[in-house]
C-alpha cells in the first residue's frame, strides 16, 4: 500500500471507482504511459477471455481478464475502464509470442478488492490461500472406474499433498475431491462461473482469506469423507520473493553459500532463467515441495579464488546436500555446523556427486584474508547472526 506524506496532494482529486467484473465482449479502455512517447496513451478493445491466469510477477494463479487492447511496457499498473468510466482492472502483463497479436492481461476488480480487504482485516498483506495439493483430471472413464467412482460422481484426483500445508493432516494421494464449499467440481477441475461459463476450481480457493476454513468432500476407497480444512498460503522450496530483504549468504574459505530464490535465478541467468538455469534447479523450482517450513535450497553460488580452494574454481550454483554426513536443512543450519566444526576436515557433499574437502583450521584461517581481498565486511549476512 502506497500513500503520500502531504495531505495537500489529495485536495481536488477524485478517486477512481471500481466497477464489477465485465462480461465477454464488453468494451475496455486502457490508460497509461507505455513506451513510444511521453504523454498519456489510451488504447481500447474488448474482453476476449476470463479465466485463471498465471501471474508472472506473483508466481501464482488467479482470476484474470484477457483483452485485445494493446498493452506495452509501461502500461503495467495503469487502469482499465469500462464504457461507464469505472475501473474494471489494472493492466499488468501481455503475451509476447510470434503467433500472437494484441493479447494483454488485466487484474480484475475481485482480485484487487481481495487484496484491499485482506490488508484492512489484518493490517498487512497475507496473500491468497491455496489448496496445498497437485491434482489430476478424471475425464478418463477407466480411471474413474478404477478409483471406485459411481457414474454420477465427478471430481479430481489428488496427486501429491504438500507436507507443509494444513491439508497434509487429512488429504491423501489418490483421494478424489468431489466438492469445495458445497460446489461440485467437474472431472476437468472446473466449477460453474456466472451464466453459462465455467472456471478452474482454484478460483473458489482464491476467494477465501488466509486462515479461513473450507468444507471439502472427498471420496476415498469408495467412501465419502468430509473435512473442514484451514487454508494457508504456499510455502515454496524456492520462494518467488525475498520481500525486500538483502540476500542471505555465508562464506568460508572463499566458498560463497546462498539460498536459491526466483530473484536469485533471475539475477544469475536473466529474465529467461526458466530456459538458462541448471536443469536440476529448475526441476526443484517447478516440482519440489518443502518438507518442513524452514527448508531452503542451499547452493555454492561461486568460489572466490584463493590458494586454499584450488581446483574448486568451476563450482557454480550447485546444491549442497550435506556437511560432514549431516543433511543441510537451510543456510543457517549449514553456517552453524561449519562454525562449530572441530573435526579435522570440512566435507561438503554437492549435487552431481561432487565432493569438496577442506582442512578445517586452514580453511577458517584463510577466510578473513579472502574477505579482506574482496572488500567483504562479514563472512555471513546479518540474518544468520541473529
TrEMBL record:
<dbReference type="InterPro" id="IPR036034">
    <property type="entry name" value="PDZ_sf"/>
</dbReference>
<dbReference type="InterPro" id="IPR046449">
    <property type="entry name" value="DEGP_PDZ_sf"/>
</dbReference>
<dbReference type="InterPro" id="IPR001478">
    <property type="entry name" value="PDZ"/>
</dbReference>
<dbReference type="InterPro" id="IPR001940">
    <property type="entry name" value="Peptidase_S1C"/>
</dbReference>
<dbReference type="GO" id="GO:0006508">
    <property type="term" value="P:proteolysis"/>
</dbReference>
<protein>
    <recommendedName>
        <fullName>Protease Do-like 9</fullName>
    </recommendedName>
</protein>
<dbReference type="InterPro" id="IPR041517">
    <property type="entry name" value="DEGP_PDZ"/>
</dbReference>
<dbReference type="InterPro" id="IPR009003">
    <property type="entry name" value="Peptidase_S1_PA"/>
</dbReference>
<keyword id="KW-0720">Serine protease</keyword>
<feature type="domain" description="PDZ">
    <location>
        <begin position="131"/>
        <end position="231"/>
    </location>
</feature>
<dbReference type="GO" id="GO:0008236">
    <property type="term" value="F:serine-type peptidase activity"/>
</dbReference>
<dbReference type="Pfam" id="PF13365">
    <property type="entry name" value="Trypsin_2"/>
</dbReference>
<dbReference type="Pfam" id="PF17815">
    <property type="entry name" value="PDZ_3"/>
</dbReference>
<feature type="domain" description="Protease Do-like PDZ">
    <location>
        <begin position="238"/>
        <end position="383"/>
    </location>
</feature>
<keyword id="KW-0645">Protease</keyword>
<dbReference type="InterPro" id="IPR043504">
    <property type="entry name" value="Peptidase_S1_PA_chymotrypsin"/>
</dbReference>
<dbReference type="Pfam" id="PF13180">
    <property type="entry name" value="PDZ_2"/>
</dbReference>
<keyword id="KW-0378">Hydrolase</keyword>
<comment type="similarity">
    <text>Belongs to the peptidase S1C family.</text>
</comment>
Amino acid at each position: 500500500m502506497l500513500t503520500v506524506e502531504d495531505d495537500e496532494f489529495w485536495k481536488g482529486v477524485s478517486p477512481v471507482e471500481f466497477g464489477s467484473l465485465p462480461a465477454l465482449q464488453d468494451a475496455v479502455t486502457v490508460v497509461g504511459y507505455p513506451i513510444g512517447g511521453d504523454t498519456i496513451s489510451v488504447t481500447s478493445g474488448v474482453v476476449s477471455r476470463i479465466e485463471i491466469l498465471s501471474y508472472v510477477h506473483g508466481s501464482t494463479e488467479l482470476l484474470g481478464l484477457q483483452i485485445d487492447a494493446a498493452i506495452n511496457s509501461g502500461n503495467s499498473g495503469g487502469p482499465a475502464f469500462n464504457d461507464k468510466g469505472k475501473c474494471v482492472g489494472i493492466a499488468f502483463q501481455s503475451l509476447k509470442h510470434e503467433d500472437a497479436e494484441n493479447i494483454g492481461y488485466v487484474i480484475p476488480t475481485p482480485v484487487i478488492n481481495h487484496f484491499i480487504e485482506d490488508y484492512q482485516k489484518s493490517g498487512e498483506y497475507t496473500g491468497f490461500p491455496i489448496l496445498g495439493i497437485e491434482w489430476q483430471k478424471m475425464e478418463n472413464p477407466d480411471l474413474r472406474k478404477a478409483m471406485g467412482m459411481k457414474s454420477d460422481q465427478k471430481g479430481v484426483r489428488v496427486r501429491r499433498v504438500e507436507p507443509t500445508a494444513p491439508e497434509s493432516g487429512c488429504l491423501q494421494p489418490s483421494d478424489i475431491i468431489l466438492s469445495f464449499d458445497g460446489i461440485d467440481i467437474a472431472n476437468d477441475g472446473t466449477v460453474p462461473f456466472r451464466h453459462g461459463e465455467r472456471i478452474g476450481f482454484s478460483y473458489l480457493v482464491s476467494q477465501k482469506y488466509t486462515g479461513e476454513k473450507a468444507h471439502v468432500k472427498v471420496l476415498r476407497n469408495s467412501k465419502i469423507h468430509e473435512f473442514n480444512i484451514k487454508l494457508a498460503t504456499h510455502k515454496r522450496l524456492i520462494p518467488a520473493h525475498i520481500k525486500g530483504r538483502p540476500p542471505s549468504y555465508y562464506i568460508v574459505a572463499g566458498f560463497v553459500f546462498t539460498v536459491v530464490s526466483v530473484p536469485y535465478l533471475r539475477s544469475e541467468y536473466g529474465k529467461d532463467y526458466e530456459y538458462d538455469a541448471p536443469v536440476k534447479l529448475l526441476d526443484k523450482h517447478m516440482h519440489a515441495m518443502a518438507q518442513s517450513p524452514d527448508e531452503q535450497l542451499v547452493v555454492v553460488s561461486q568460489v572466490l579464488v584463493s590458494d586454499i580452494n584450488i581446483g574448486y574454481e568451476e563450482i557454480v550454483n550447485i546444491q549442497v546436500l550435506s556437511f560432514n554426513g549431516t543433511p543441510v536443512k537451510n543456510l543457517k543450519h549449514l553456517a552453524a555446523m561449519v562454525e562449530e566444526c572441530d573435526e579435522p576436515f570440512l566435507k561438503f557433499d554437492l549435487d552431481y556427486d561432487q565432493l569438496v574437502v577442506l582442512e578445517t583450521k586452514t580453511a577458517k584461517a584463510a577466510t578473513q584474508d579472502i574477505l579482506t581481498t574482496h572488500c567483504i565486511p562479514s563472512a555471513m549476512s546479518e540474518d544468520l547472526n541473529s
